[in-house]
Design brief:
The protein is of the alpha+beta class. The chain is built from 23 helices and 28 strands. It has an eleven-stranded mixed β-sheet, sandwiched between helices. A six-stranded antiparallel β-sheet has the order 18-17-19-22-21-20. It has a three-stranded antiparallel β-sheet with strand order 16-24-23, with no helix packed on it. Helix 9 packs parallel to helix 10.
Length: about 675
């Protein structure tokens, strides 16, 4: 009877989406929490069903009273919870001396195990092939689905966190140059002892940030990251769907460490979309200070042409770059972009060779009308028909580009000096006459009919080797195309990459030649590739496996003279050269995680278990015998999905032992080579 009612209750509770986790299972701790707080939605759900109304409510006259303790007792006794928590409690996983089911405290959830890729080479293009029975075809049809990444989170106590974030040992260290892969005997340093090598680090990015802190604290001029956007349907899938609170924790842990690495005269730029933008902004306010927020940059990252069917209006085609400086009052460098002629430059000086007081001005439209034997715009329209405006604009533009020193706009100064104000007033009283205000160490100001003159020629700057009209960079970057960037870097990640031109713009806005750039969500290596071409030092960190499309492949292409992306810009003219050092965080329990994720069946997992507790570090409170001799033989456990089984196996590992600490690296258990140990010591200057 109880078992039947348990099923009834589970089905009722699953009607409330808040109580169901990303795997469609009930979250027992959350149900407890709602019951304790007398959550209105939960009580209404139970009250509306006859079975639960009779079981958990006492009727007093016409009022139903919720029997809170009876309900919570039933949850505990009948294990109304998701499969992981049920088995975790039985195996012995706990925190702070309490089993998970007994915890009501607010805890900090650290997703230290960032992710493991289920085979394949990339998050963007990885696909799995599977077969599904088709009723219409009466046969099994081959289908494809995107591979997904699995993320595991772990609750850790402070002493565990301290050990987890200790400096980590490095392995597989090598330098890449134009000659190929080379052995490295030491890291290159400048006269101050700072490493000058470009670095690509493979491993958990949070732990890598901690490892970098000793050598690079306060040295990074620019941090750019392109983290998971937490869209709910992007390639980054966490075991809890990477929900909002976990995402913020994930970002917070890393941003706090990034803050320490940033130079006092540096800035951080983060690509994001609208879903988490406001929450990320608040988080950055806390870490970097609200006063240090730089203008929000809006990118047009798509077009309606890329949508097969459009149901929403307006269609969202924007992404954003949110930026903060390390200190208050920071000003990025002035960067200019090519622009076109504007009709604001509406007048021409007919006799620019004469002195300013004798200048005669005429409207540029009037000049074009007269040139075409028209008295006014009506005659011009009649002569040229429906396209008259375009024809007139084209002629105005042609004249302005050829005679830029004598084409002007009439402006109003916001805060003119007393001297200029007097000249402006004179020009109002004496019409059609130019008054010059000479200034020491600056160009003269010219006043005309109560306005000031701005010359079109002052908008011209050399951009990409050509003298063109320009304007100072605004916070709307519509000139950066996201289309056709797949081949950039000669790696073939079609989706998710950022254009090299975007990184070029950010790098030139913040840094100078030789400055240090950091990207700890490196992906296919766009940031490192552009920094390399622009003669900036860089550090890139990545954990995912991208195969032939990873940053090492891309940077080798750069060293060998890659011609894609920004290579042909006049201020770059990339010819190849340079070098970078590749290294990996030395794995400990991470090897066990990799082995777990490579298993194809429960049978393989069970076979692996003996190796796990013999060679790796399990949580000290794991009941090995209970798990090995009883739980894995239970039908309920065997019926769990393979991913859930893997998650339980992985959870038994001590996740603060993922990588080898420097303090332990000479222990023979970890089998680090003498070269790895020596280079790790060289890195940390031990």
């Amino acid at each position: 009877m109880t078992e039947n009612f348990k099923s009834v209750l589970e089905n009722i509770l699953k009607k409330d989406e808040r109580l169901v986790d990303g795997n469609g299972e009930l979250n027992g701790n959350l149900i407890h929490e709602y019951a304790s707080s007398l959550d209105e939605g939960l009580i209404e759900l139970l009250l509306n069903e006859e079975a639960t109304r009779e079981k958990f409510f006492l009727k007093v006259k016409d009022v139903y009273v919720f029997k809170q303790n009876d309900f919570k007792f039933f949850l505990d006794e009948n294990k109304i919870d998701n499969s992981y928590t049920q088995y975790a409690n039985r195996i012995g996983l706990s925190t702070g001396g309490k089993f998970l089911k007994d915890i009501d405290d607010v805890v900090l959830d650290f997703p230290y195990k960032d992710c493991v890729l289920e085979g394949g080479q990339s998050t963007e293009e990885g696909t799995d092939t599977y077969f599904e029975y088709d009723e219409n075809e009466q046969d099994y049809i081959e289908k494809e689905a995107k591979r997904k990444e699995i993320f595991f989170n772990q609750i850790l106590a402070k002493d565990e966190i301290d050990r987890l974030t200790e400096p980590k040992a490095f392995t597989n260290i090598k330098r890449y140059t134009e000659k190929g892969e080379e052995k490295i005997t030491s890291f290159n340093r400048n006269e101050k002892g700072q490493i000058t090598d470009n670095l690509i680090i493979k491993g958990n990015n949070l732990l890598a940030l901690h490892a970098l802190k000793e050598q690079f604290q306060g040295k990074v001029k620019l941090i750019y990251i392109d983290p998971p956007y937490n869209t709910g349907n992007d390639e980054f899938k966490y075991n809890d769907k990477f929900n909002h609170s976990t995402w913020l924790t994930f970002m917070k842990n890393r941003l706090e460490e990034a803050f320490h690495l940033l130079h006092s005269d540096g800035a951080i730029f983060i690509s994001i979309n609208h879903i988490e933008l406001p929450y990320l902004s608040i988080l950055l306010d806390q870490i970097f200070s609200r006063e240090n927020k730089l203008p929000l940059i809006t990118l047009k990252a798509g077009t309606t042409a890329s949508y097969r069917s459009i149901n929403d209006c307006p269609v969202n085609v924007t992404e954003f770059v949110i930026a903060y400086s390390k200190t208050t009052g920071y000003k990025p460098k002035q960067v200019y972009r090519e622009t076109s002629y504007s009709e604001d430059y509406s007048h021409i000086i007919l006799n620019p060779e004469e002195t300013p007081e004798n200048w005669k001005l005429k409207s540029l439209t009037g000049y074009v009308h007269e040139k075409n034997n028209c008295k006014n715009w009506r005659e011009f329209k009649k002569k040229f028909g429906p396209t008259w405006k375009k024809i007139r604009f084209d002629e105005m533009e042609k004249y302005a580009l050829k005679n830029k020193t004598s084409v002007v706009s009439l402006n109003t100064l916001q805060k003119p000096s007393d001297k200029i104000s007097i000249a402006v007033k004179k020009s109002k009283d004496v019409r059609d006459k130019v008054f010059e205000v000479k200034r020491k160490n600056a160009e003269s100001i010219y006043c005309y009919n109560g306005r000031t003159l701005a010359f079109f020629s002052n908008k011209f700057r050399e951009i990409d080797g050509e003298l063109v009209p320009s304007e100072i960079l605004t916070n709307i970057w519509s000139d950066i195309s996201f289309l056709g960037i797949g081949p950039e870097g000669s790696v073939t990640l079609e989706n998710g990459k950022k254009p090299e031109y975007l990184l070029k713009t950010i790098i030139e806005l913040i840094t100078d030649s030789g400055d240090l750039v950091l990207d700890y969500h490196l992906g296919s290596g766009t940031t490192a590739a552009v920094a390399h071409k622009m003669n900036r030092q860089y550090i890139g960190v990545e954990q995912l496996e991208y195969g032939d499309n990873d940053s090492v492949t891309r940077l080798n292409n750069v060293i060998n003279g890659d011609k894609t992306g920004v290579s042909d810009y006049e201020d770059i003219k990339w010819k190849g050269g340079g070098s970078f050092v590749y290294c990996e965080l030395a794995k400990n329990n991470q090897k066990a995680i990799d082995k777990i994720m490579s298993c194809k069946s429960l049978k393989e997992l069970i076979t692996l278990f003996d190796e796990l507790y013999e060679k790796y570090f399990l949580n000290y409170n794991v009941k090995v015998r209970v798990f090995k001799e009883k739980i894995v033989k239970e039908k309920e456990f065997q019926n769990l999905s393979l991913n859930r089984q893997k998650e339980i196996f992985a959870r038994m590992l001590d996740l603060n032992q993922l990588y080898v600490n420097v303090s332990d690296m000479e222990d023979s258990r970890f089998k680090l080579s003498d070269e790895d140990i020596a280079l790790t010591k060289n890195f940390y200057q031990l």
